Amino acid sequence: MNGAAASPVLDIQNLSIRLPAGGDRALAVTDASLTLHAGQTLCVVGESGSGKSMIANAVMGLLPRPHVEPVAGRILFGGRDLLQLGEPALRELRGQQIGMVFQEPMTALNPVMRIGEQIAEVFDAHQSLGAAEKRRRIVGALADVGLPDPGLLYDSFPFRLSGGQRQRVMIACAMALQPRLLIADEPTTALDVTTQAQILQLIRELQRKRGMAVLFITHDFGVVSEIADQVAVMQTGTIVEAGPAAQVLGAPRHAYTRKLLAAIPGGQARAPGDGAEFHRVLQVQDLCKTYRSGGGLFRPPREVPAARNINLELLRGQTLGLVGESGSGKSTLGRCIVGLAPFDSGRILFNGRNLSQGSGLLQRSGGKIQMVFQDPYASLNPRHRIGAAIASGPIAQGVPRAEAHARTLALLKLVGLGPEAAERYPHEFSGGQRQRIGIARALAMQPELLVADEPVSALDVSVQAQVLELFAQVREQFQLAMVFITHDLRVAAQMCDQIAVMQRGEVVEYGATARVLDAPAHAYTRKLIEAIPRLAREAAPAAQPAPPAMPIPAAADGFAPGGLRASGAGGYA
To answer: Is 61 domain-assigned?
Structure first.
């Protein structure tokens, strides 16, 4: 291998990034060093606040200076120190030599611009092309990322695309000028497992085709095992472990790395309950719900069936998992159960009583059906203190204020927060803490049925593990019946006694968790199971290894926690 081929695409040397005064620490990143070669994927892993996204933004020149800025170190790209370049030089590199895919494509895309116009801005910034040639290249870029009907999507607005399609558009934007380095900042965090698998496969294929280097930011070691050649683990701004993926996954040296690995849901079905109390809390019978939109004098309305003849039942103390991709109808079914959405036909029985629809359902259930939402920040009033938010439900049901306040403090203690949390506002808590508050608010009504809609999908794996443990604790303590909505079968396996798999508004498979996971009868269920990122990695074929990203010796093949085999830095499960 000649010297030019061995030179790194990106070389970060002793980088430190300062935070504004008054933060929880002085430096967002402390003395970080990373090296990335062409054709390699380096995954930077850590929880929220670990500093991994700060490194990505520093490479792109997107830090909010002077409040947050590098104070030491160098970032070498093609031999040039990016920290010494002015904004015009950085603007020339961005897009043309370095592309970036952001975590949330809907906020990164302009909602009032058509897809083609947004990708055209990349070409306009760096090249002079005629309109016909520019359109041809844009349509080609959309086709390269596997989008259907790229000519039609060219004139579409972002809101008409699914989450996975919008992420593909962002990849097309980043890859339009075939950059040497692609930075992907949590690009699959809140996506369905099947969409996530497609995005990871797409990045691998584009990398193999173009030989680019990929800096991949994530908190999920399952994703790391699918895509990484090298791994760097960050904790509170410091790289605590780095090396080849097989070494870090198979023989982790640092306690924090082992903690992140142990937090990944194992995918093993939980032991079923003893069935001592056979009391049906919930029965859903032939439920149908169709969304209708548009239409006019000569045009019929557009109809989308969200639930078709759904039949389910749930016993006290049990958890039923509703599993499926976005658009499968699982969240609509959950909203119908709690009375937040009307349904067209069918019945919902709660403790044997037939509940009417909408607000009537809420009234007749007496507050005994509660919901924990996916985004706890959006479901909490930012102007109300936490204590008032939790106590408001019982007070509205006639509970004396003193009793409601005492119940609030007891619930805050139960979910791992102190009494001082009652006087704070939602923005003063982390995402995991806000989800704990959402659980406390639901429990304040002393419910018998709890519906949790994707409550951990956007959380770090370690925080996710804590919240799942809390759900299990309150289920056992209060003997709750729970409907747990998720797209991740690993989470469903850990939490649920039974699983109902939904596809396009229909339950295509329904049964005990162990049976559904071990012997899935439907092809769609098997597709969801196959799409789950796993730590298991196949042994790599004998070949010349890629140059190491970090000066840490490779470890022998080993076993990851839970008996999952990790070997061969170049192989994928």
So the answer is: no
